[in-house]
Amino acid sequence: MTTMTDAAPTRVYKAHTRPAWRRVIVSREAAIIGILLLVIIVASATVRNFDSPLTVTYLLRDIAPILLIALPMTLIIITEEIDLSVASIVGLSSVMTGILTQAGLPFPAAALIAILTGTLAGVFNGFLITVVGLPSLAVTIGTLALFRGIAVGLLGTTAITDFPEEWTDLAKANIPGTPIPMIMIPFVVLAIVFAIVLHFTPFGRSLYAIGMNKEAAAFSGIDVGRTKFLLFVLSGAVSGFAGVYFTLLYSNARGDNAMGMELQVIAAVLLGGVSIFGGRGALHGVIAGVLLIGVLGSALRLAGVTSDVINIITGVLLILSVVSSSLLAWLQRRRAAAIGKRKGRGEATDAT
């Protein structure tokens, strides 16, 4: 008679038998950080003015919205979902900020309503995906067009450029005595919160469980629908905040603001080691992925490379990140199968 204690485990987490330092250093995230450092060193040595404080300031200002949106996007993709509507939410919140400010509303109230608009957009996405049961890819492609259409419809081809000077100055200000923009302060706070939630709480572990197998996660007691709904609401809120910052940074509210930013966000998240198939990823790798794309783009622009070529390079990096992830998984399966066969032959030899 076979008992539960006699049965062999169906799955073991061999990676966790290795020392912690090895799990940290020998990883895709560590590889991305290493590539980032290498690109910075090479660019500083070969590209004129790349390491100047002004370049650092403009680089961090430009990638700040991508850094912000990448935080909730990481959590969403870990659960094997995706949100393609984030850039259109940025545009919609930008338009709301401009319209309400132009109507005479105090800027803090206008910004709060714009963030609330982004949150409601996330609620709409989450409802269609978790309650109605539609696939996130189809839903967010549709809402990408919907939110962008509403934003363009509200302003048409006009732009609002009149914003309180104290707020635009704050968006462009640096931390005193450094070339680091002030926007990095709220980003660092959010990054710490997201990292703690993802890597050190039961909620974060449930995201990985959902990404690995949502049916098994549901049977283990995880409310899969509610968890995903919260992630899309969070994505909308952060995108709304990014839209307010985008508006102040460029002193410009237009319906086509942040056009195409969703591709940059997704490329950075996947490049940072998050699996498009869910269940894998770490926040420090994603931050390194955003910085890598930003640093590479900045260095190439200073070197005189056109934006079209930079977009091609970003696309190639995105494809390589997906292909390399699948290739590594295939190699690991082959290696595990080979080890299993060797063990099987060894047991058969011992039995004879």
Describe this protein with a few key phrases.
73% helix; ABC transporter involved in vitamin B12 uptake, BtuC; disordered N terminus; single chain; 352 residues; mainly alpha
Explained architecture:
By secondary structure, the protein is mainly α. Helices cover 73% and strands 0% of the residues. It has a single domain (38-302, 309-341), classed as ABC transporter involved in vitamin B12 uptake, BtuC (Orthogonal Bundle), CATH 1.10.3470. It has helices spanning 20-25, 28-46, 53-78, 86-102, 107-131, 136-155, 165-172, 184-200, 202-212, 214-219, 224-250, 261-271, 283-302, 307-351. The radius of gyration is 23 Å and the shape is globular. The two termini are 24 Å apart.
> Fraction of residues in helices?
over 70%
Poorly predicted residue ranges = 1-13
* Terminal residue distance: 24 Å
Mean of all residue-level pLDDT scores = 87
CATH topology: ABC transporter involved in vitamin B12 uptake, BtuC
Helix-strand topology string: HHHHHHHHHHHHHH
Count of helix runs? 14
Q: What proportion strand?
A: under 5%
Strand-pairing-aware structural class: mainly alpha
Gross CATH architecture: Orthogonal Bundle
